[in-house]
Amino acid sequence: MTQPPAVLSVRGLSVCFLMPGGRRIAAVTEARFDVAAGECLALIGESGCGKSVLASALLGLLPANAQTAGEARLGDLDLLGADERTLARTVRGRRIGLVPQSPAAHLTPVRTIRSQLEETVAALTDVRGRAAVRKAAEAAAARTAFPVDHLDRHPHELSGGLAQRAATALALVGDAPLLLADEPTTGLDRDLVEHTVDELRRHIDDGDRALLMITHDLAAAERIADRVAVMYAGRIVELTDAAAFFGAPGPRHPYSRGLLQALPDRAFTSIPGMPPELGDLPDGCAFAPRCDRAGDACATRPDLTDTVACHHPHVQEDARA
């Protein structure tokens, strides 16, 4: 069976921040993955592991003290090498739609949600005429269950959940080939989480578009994802099919298993210890101090091979334990 083409291809993407005194913080290290047309890849991990930094690198939104290496290609475009003019005029909104992690910070505070949606429709689509633009803006709001009678409100008049739905509606307007959703279910109750992820799924189900969803909501990831990438301390430590990850045989990396076991409907046990500081990572496996399978080999950092970066991964027989 022919594999669908990769909409996004990331190879060896690294991001570090140069701090005062020459200190370097390795926020993302050698990330490698593809997101194919018609596919959702869920990038999961604890807060501070580098997920949102990776998203910012793809959009060219890193601060001035950031340095990048590696490659990230959106079709034939090298995102890391693109200049700000290209990113602003042809990438953001048109080729990459962003559902931001903090919608209140991305919505224009002095303008109504309706005016922001109408402006986006006019800028990113072929819809013309005041009435047609207005109708398209209302349709975009309906896709995320944003109430029409709230469209004339300003962002500060919205709850966190409504602001999230407004930001998602804005991201969907341009029908971009890649949708990058950074914590798109933040502030939503469970019914709206399901509605939102189902709408994101519909957005890519025609086979032409792809979704990279950054989330710590494993239930949402299980509902929507085709594949899962697990990130820990700036590195992808597992990359596998969602069905195998959430079902049988289950995750192979001990950290991945710990994430699932912390869910209320599973074992509901926590991972001991704390993640390391990204500015003070160990030479070996960063998860070893918290891992009950760690051994002498873990003094050397494992590479991501055969879906997992671990010297002592769970195999099919013991992954069901």
Topology readout:
Elements: E1 6-18, E2 24-36, E3 40-44, H1 51-59, E4 66-74, E5 77-78, H2 84-91, E6 96-99, H3 103-106, H4 113-124, H5 130-143, H6 160-172, E7 178-182, H7 190-204, E8 210-215, H8 218-224, E9 227-232, E10 235-241, H9 242-246, H10 254-261, H11 316-319
Parallel strand pairs: 3-8, 3-9, 6-7, 7-8
Antiparallel strand pairs: 1-2, 1-4, 4-5, 9-10
Main features:
321 residues; alpha/beta; Rossmann fold; 2 domains; six-stranded mixed β-sheet; four-stranded antiparallel β-sheet; 11 helices; globular
Please explain how this structure is put together.
There is one protein chain. A hairpin with a 2-residue loop joins β4 and β5. The chain has helices at 51-59, 84-91, 103-106, 113-124, 130-143, 160-172, 190-204, 218-224, 242-246, 254-261, 316-319; strands at residues 6-18, 24-36, 40-44, 66-74, 77-78, 96-99, 178-182, 210-215, 227-232, 235-241. The model has no long low-confidence stretch (mean pLDDT 91). The protein is built from eleven helices and ten strands. The protein has two domains: 6-89 and 179-319, Rossmann fold; 96-175, no CATH class. The radius of gyration is 20 Å and the shape is globular. By secondary structure, it is of the alpha/beta class. The chain is 31% helix and 22% strand. The protein has a six-stranded mixed sheet, with helices on both faces. Strands 2-1-4-5 form a four-stranded antiparallel sheet, covered by helices on one side. The longest helix is centred in the middle third of the chain and has 15 residues, at 190-204.
